[in-house]
Each structure stands twice: as C-alpha cells, then as structure tokens.
Specification:
Low-confidence stretches: none
CATH superfamily of the largest domain: P-loop containing nucleotide triphosphate hydrolases
CATH class of the largest domain: Alpha Beta
CATH topology of the largest domain: Rossmann fold
Number of strands: 14
Number of helices: 18
Number of domains: 4
Helix content: 40-55%
Mean pLDDT: 85
Length: about 425
C-alpha cells in the first residue's frame, strides 16, 4: 500500500522480479477491498495514505487476517513513529528511499519467521482442541469399522461423500475427517445446500463482486475443508459451477471477471440416493462420479444399538449441565425401551429424547415415563413382568433379531453373537424369532 504511484509500481516490479505474487493498492479503501477478497501473507504499508493512517490500516488488516505480517514504510522516520508501528504489530520498519537489497533481506526474515509462527499456532491449536474422535460416542463393531475407515481417509486430501439417513451425525464425522488430517490447522467451513435462495447460496459458495463483495467459502477455506451438507439439494446450475471448481481447481465469483484458485477439500453429505437422482436427471452425473470415489456410509442408529447406553450417558451429562439439573443416569428399564425403539431420526432423535427426559425427570434417574410419549409406542413392547429371567429372554430376542437383520447370513450372525451355528438355530426356535 503506497500512495505515490511511481514508488508503488517500482516496488511492485522489483518484488515480481524476485518471484513474489503482488497486488497493489494506493489507498486504505483499496487495501481493505483486496484483503477482503484474498488472504495475503505480507503487506508493505506506507504510513501516510490519502484516505487514512497506515498504522490504523494495519490494525484493521490484522482483524481481517491475523496471520498477515506488515512492513511499515515511510519518508518521515522518527523514534516515536517507529515505536507506534511496532506497538501496533508491525514486523519491520523501513524508510524511504527503499534500498532493494535491504527490503529483500527483511522479506526473507519475515517469511522465515511467519513459517515458524504459523507452525507454533498450529501446534497450540492442536494441543488445545480435543480430537473429534473423542466426541464420537460408542464402541459397537459398526462404529469401530466406520472410524477405521475415517482414519484411513483423513490422512489424504481426497474429496469424500458421506451417505446416511438424516440424524446420523454426518457433519460430526466430516469434522473428524478434517481434524485428523494433515490440514487440521486450516479452516473447516460448513454449508447447508438447501436452506437459502440460489443467489445467496452461490454468493456464499463462490463469492461475489461489486458493492457488497464477499470472498466466498471456496476461497476463504484456503487449503482447509468445505463441508456441503445435503448436496443433493444444490440446483443443477450450481452443481455445474461446483464441478468446474473441483475439476479445474478454480472458480469465478458471481458477477466477477477474474477466476481465483480453489485448493480446499470437499466433503459432501447426502441422505438421498444420488445415483437414483442422476437417473432422474436432477443430479449431475459427472459430479456424482467426482464425489463417489471415496464414499463412506454412516450407519443408522438401529444398526449400532449397542452404542445406545454410552450415548444415553453422554447426552444425560450434556443436558444436565446445560439445564443445571442433577440427573445422572437412566434405569435399566429405560435403557431396554430405548434399545427397542425404531429411531427413524437416529442419534439426533435420541439426543432430543434425552433432553426432554432430563427436563421431565424429578429425581436423579430417568424413568420410562420421562421419555417422549410417542417413543413409548415404538419398537417391541417391554416385558410385563419384573421377573429377571423373562426380561433377559425378552432382551435376548430383541438382540438376536437385530443382529440377524443386520447380518442375514446366519454363519456371520453366529460369529457376531459369539455363538455356534447350531446354538443360533436353537435360540431362533426357543425364542420364536420371526425371520420373515
């Protein structure tokens, strides 16, 4: 940022010859506009600008981009101005006329220090943030298999498609992929593809130019991750723009004339069958195959019922803290009821059910009557006896039925149940399990 055009152009030409990508600004407004559209690494800023003070500009630039390093340059060097510049966050202080060798040497120092600074910030962030895997609750075999797959995918920068029913926690798993990968210090930005008009959605995704210019999420994410929730709801025209951004790694802001590079990873999710939508002509076939290369299925809650006791404990602790109640657990009868429900809304529905139960609970332990009334009609009825043997028989029937539905091959089901095949057939007959 330099108000004198000759000096500005001379500096720019020297820096371009040195191999730097350079943007030029002659005023505070121009500098702020450029920095809203793109994240720069270093700024060389004159103290005297036609529409403002360079030190105040530096403070505003740091708000837009905290990792921007600034070199202040002026023709009026004083001890006071140097102290003010360093206090405001300047890395170096230069005087006119600028000696190019001195500038080159100081820029080398800036980039070396910046690299160390960012690495330090990344490590601090990593130490301060719990692993997203720590926030995924459960220890069932389907969940372990899923987490093993996510761990393998997370170390790459490949685009990913997460498929699963509504409420299975697809964004949580997307965040786990990002936070366990090599770009975990970069941004994770999420967009719901079906919650706003197309013009606003495209401006949010790709950016816009003009009076109310915004950079767009694909640009703002840098080398981080953009999570596109329910990608099936993207209009066809928007799908085409997204496909181009993914194929050519560049995009164009709405109303703009200059493309910008796209380096982010795309993680998309869908609760619909995208292949069927391709056949119906409402989803781009090329975009489907671009996403379908790394596809991960998120199992519904009914396939990981063994996780329900852990999830219940987790949600009780969460909602008890938020509601300032002393609820600590649920009765075994309540757990049996929860494990026999259908859970069409998956983990989200369970979360809401436990929140309601914590609100209604008058003691420290959740009873079946504290659960949502509509939940009491779901799934298999509870045994109408207090006899332990009958209750265990009832649960045994539910558990074996669930495993057989998940694993129709009886040899595989017996292996999962840790039973011999003949023992499984005997249980099916004794418990009158309907396999129809």
């Amino acid at each position: 940022m330099e108000d004198e055009e000759i000096i500005r152009n001379t500096l720019a030409e020297f820096l371009i010859e040195e191999g730097f990508d350079v943007a030029r600004a002659g005023s505070v407004d121009e500098a702020l506009s450029l920095c809203r559209e793109q994240d720069y690494q270093v700024a060389i800023c004159d103290i005297q600008l036609p529409d403002g003070d360079g030190i105040q500009l530096m403070k505003r630039l740091h708000k837009l981009n905290p990792s921007l390093f600034v070199l202040i340059i002026t023709a009026y060097a004083t001890v006071e101005s140097a102290v003010d510049a360093f206090k405001a966050g300047a890395f170096e202080y230069l005087t006119k006329p600028v000696i190019f060798d001195d500038l080159s040497h100081k820029l080398q120092r800036v980039f070396q220090y910046r690299e160390l600074y960012l690495e330090n910030q990344r490590l601090r962030h990593e130490l301060a943030q719990p692993s997203r895997f720590d926030q995924i609750v459960g220890s069932s075999d389907p969940l372990k298999t899923l987490l093993d797959t996510i761990q393998k995918v997370s170390v790459t920068h490949s685009n990913v498609l997460l498929v699963g029913e509504t409420g299975t926690g697809k964004e949580l798993f997307a965040r786990a992929i990002h936070s366990s990968g090599p770009k975990q210090a970069d941004k994770f930005l999420a967009v719901n593809c079906g919650t706003r008009p197309i013009e606003l959605l495209e401006a949010e995704l790709f950016g816009s130019s003009g009076e109310n210019a915004q950079p767009g999420i694909l640009r703002s994410a840098g080398k981080g991750t953009v999570f596109l929730d329910e990608i099936a709801q993207l209009p066809m025209g928007t799908q085409t723009r997204l496909l181009r951004a993914m194929e050519y790694q560049e995009s164009m802001p709405s109303g703009g004339a200059e493309p910008y590079p796209v380096h982010c990873r795309i993680i998309a999710s869908s609760s619909q069958d995208l292949m069927r939508l391709v056949g119906d002509g409402i989803f781009q076939e090329d975009l489907f195959y671009r996403l379908d290369g790394v596809k991960i299925r998120i199992p519904p809650l009914r396939e990981r019922l063994d996780d329900i006791p852990e999830l219940v404990d987790h949600f009780i602790a969460k909602h008890s803290r938020a509601l300032r109640k002393r609820v600590t657990s649920a009765t075994s009868e309540t757990i049996r009821l929860l494990m026999s429900a259908q859970w069409k809304g998956n983990v989200r529905q369970l979360d809401n059910a436990i929140e309601r139960a914590v609100i209604m609970c008058e003691g420290t332990t959740i009873e079946p009557t504290d659960l949502p009334p509509d939940l009491l009609g779901l799934g298999q009825p509870l045994p109408d006896t207090d006899d332990l043997r009958s209750a265990l028989r009832h649960y045994e029937r539910l558990h074996i039925t669930r495993v057989l539905r998940q694993w129709p091959d009886k040899r595989e089901a017996a292996k999962r149940l840790k039973l011999g095949l003949s023992s499984l057939y005997r249980k099916i007959e004794e418990l009158s399990i309907d396999l129809g």
